[in-house]
């Protein structure tokens, strides 16, 4: 399946299935997600999918959709903020790590249950 959704729509899509956008709790889980981005765990369409991390509620206060503590691994120079980039995606490319992005952008996403 190939499609992309905004961060908020992706979270609703996951919730409709009894899941959430992915919450990365440990470096081992980060490595697992990084190594499986081209598998059935991802709704294909991009190698930079949404994860369940945002600062939409309070600028600069990044929280996971579940409210639990997670593994924080920002790409160098991120988060940039200041431009309305309040949702995190997972960059598997050369500079691996999370990036803040416009929540309205449509891209692939990772659900977990």
How would you sum up this structure, described in words?
- The protein is an alpha+beta fold and 113 residues long.
- It has a single domain (7-112), classed as Mannose-Binding Protein A, subunit A (Mannose-Binding Protein A, Chain A, Roll), CATH 3.10.100.
- 17% of the residues lie in helices and 19% in strands.
- The chain has 2 helices and 6 strands.
- The strands form 2 sheets. Strands 3-2-4-5 form a 4-stranded antiparallel β-sheet, with helices on one face. A two-stranded antiparallel sheet has the order 1-6.
- A hairpin with a 5-residue loop joins strand 4 and strand 5 (97-101).
- The model has no long low-confidence stretch (mean pLDDT 85).
